[in-house]
Amino acid sequence: MKNKIFTAIFLLIFSGISFAQEELKINFDEIKMKVENVNSETYYPKLIKRFNEFDTTLTLEENSLIYFGFSFQENYLKNKPREDELQTLSNNKEYEKLVLECQKILEKNPVSLEGNNKMGFALFKLEKPETEWKKYQKRYRDLRKVISFSGNGLSCETAFKVIYVSDEYNIIYDYFEIPKISRQSLSGLCDRFINEVSEYYKATEIYFDASRSLIRNEEIINKK
């Protein structure tokens, strides 16, 4: 089990999770239209400003536009978060350095799951005020809720949608607490995992659609 230490800190992350749940309808054409409409309240610079100000009134749909809408920003692929160092610093209990590394990531990529997760954790371990670390905890929880509501994971057609492959493993191990993956393969544009069941995910297969990064890369290449 990964990161058991997070259990006490992020207990509410798992509240309300069930195998059958409401789903967001993720349509990337609609998302693009909404986040690029300069006259709308869903214009991405407006949404990300509220997100970076830790606006607690952001709705599930608005958070979905923030997460998936990041894939329409100019430096989406360039700013793919490099999160390996965060775990190393966390394991070594170098919490001051961990805060600095998280800040570097979140300045460029505020929707980084591990950037928000480890920032909240580091601030907690440094005994900062609850108001400081809880705001990152909430952002982390809200982003993962968006992903978990983007499908049910039972097929490629109903796959959980992510904008980075690394987010798949966060959902598998830390959100659904799946104890073991025995096999991974491609199924169309989806990653298909054969897994052991957990308390929070009862099927033996889980699908993720991370094709947005491939599509975005092709768009960049075609513009050259």
Structure description:
With 224 residues, this protein is an alpha+beta fold. It has one domain. The protein has ten helices and four strands, in the order ααααααααβαβββα. It has a four-stranded mixed beta sheet, with no helix packed on it. Helix 2 packs across helix 4. The longest helix is centred in the middle third of the chain and has 19 residues. The N terminus is likely disordered.
The domain count comes to 1
Based on secondary structure, the structural category is alpha+beta
Give the quaternary arrangement of the chains.
single chain
Largest sheet: 4 strands, mixed
Total number of strands? 4
Number of helices: 10
Give the ordered list of helices and strands. Answer: HHHHHHHHEHEEEH
Based on CA atoms alone, the radius of gyration comes out at: 17 Å
Kindly state the mean pLDDT as a whole number?
89
Low-confidence stretches: 1-20
Estimate the global geometry from the Cα principal axes: globular
Proportion of helical residues: 40-55%
Q: Percent of residues in beta strands? A: 5-15%
* Gap between N and C termini: 44 Å
Numbering strands along the chain, what is their spatial order in the largest sheet? 1-4-3-2
Organism: Flavobacterium bernardetii
Protein name: DUF4919 domain-containing protein
Keywords: Signal
InterPro entries: DUF4919
